[in-house]
Amino acid sequence: MRLLNYMRQWRGLAKEALERTAIVAKFLCLLHVTDTYLCTPTLVYGPSMLPTLNLKGDVLLAEHLSPRLGKVGSGDVVLVRSPVDPRRTLTKRVVGMEGDRVTFFVDPLHTDRCQSAVVPKGHVWIQGDNMYASSDSRHYGPVPYGLIQGKVFFRF
């Protein structure tokens, strides 16, 4: 009789543990789906987007649906996987879409020489708002549209 009560108690504890584990797993799945496909909070810092974003850092909310639906356009601030270092994510402004002719200063600190480029199909031209301290499409050319990870819609 004592063994039977012990087994019932153990089954009850195991059942409760399994239910709680399922709740945690569902929560983690929801968190993953939200972060990957819907919306991500991101901390960004650095001089490339001055004066729009602070040098010391801002928290941005970026949604992931617009890039997937092709709803990113000129003037949008986006999160982009770096074409130079794939482990980094950049925050830049879209300046030109495919087919647009973009005119830019080659090296604004040392010369006032301008250059033009046509953005190829499937690419965007991105630049930081601070042209004196930004590594962007002026340095590595047009960026494939597929590297856009999110469109910023809110800043804290």
Automatic annotation (TrEMBL):
InterPro entries: LexA/Signal_pep-like_sf, Mito_IMP1_subunit, Pept_S26A_signal_pept_1, Pept_S26A_signal_pept_1_CS, Peptidase_S26
Localisation per UniProt entry: Mitochondrion inner membrane
Example of a GO cellular component annotation carried by this entry: mitochondrial inner membrane peptidase complex
Keywords linked to the UniProt accession: Hydrolase, Membrane, Mitochondrion, Mitochondrion inner membrane
One GO-annotated biological process of the protein: signal peptide processing
GO molecular function, one term: serine-type endopeptidase activity
Active site positions: 48, 92
Keyword Zinc: no
A family per Pfam: Peptidase_S26
Xref: CDD domains: S26_SPase_I
Peptidase S26 domain: residues covered: 24-104, 114-156
Summary of the function given for this chain in its UniProt record: Catalyzes the removal of transit peptides required for the targeting of proteins from the mitochondrial matrix, across the inner membrane, into the inter-membrane space.
NCBIfam families: sigpep_I_bact
SUBUNIT field: Heterodimer of 2 subunits, IMP1A/B and IMP12.
Family affiliation: Belongs to the peptidase S26 family. IMP1 subfamily.
PANTHER family documented for this protein: MITOCHONDRIAL INNER MEMBRANE PROTEASE SUBUNIT 1, PROTEASE FAMILY S26 MITOCHONDRIAL INNER MEMBRANE PROTEASE-RELATED
Entry protein name: Birch protein
The organism of origin for this protein: Betula platyphylla
